[in-house]
Amino acid sequence: MTDEATTTRGNARKVREGLAVSVKMDKTVVVAVVDRVRHPRYRKTMQRTKHLYAHDEGNEVHEGDRVRVQETRPLSKQKRWRVIEVLERAR
Question: The domain containing residue 61 runs over which residues?
Fold first, then answer.
């Protein structure tokens, strides 16, 4: 095997940034990720919001925080993301 084949993996895991909208569960946070897409026919820019369930091991995320999440293996029925870092604290 070559060194290049052993160091790089297949697909890189997805990374998203969003706003923590709910922290009521234990070790779980709901992150709202806003994606700006163009309408295929009318060319108007729209905002699409997706709610992701992310794992927060230390319960350190508070509601309103801006966080970065990364795709991971399924942790529960709905959780497929993990909190990497808190980018900005809520005021």
Answer: 13-88
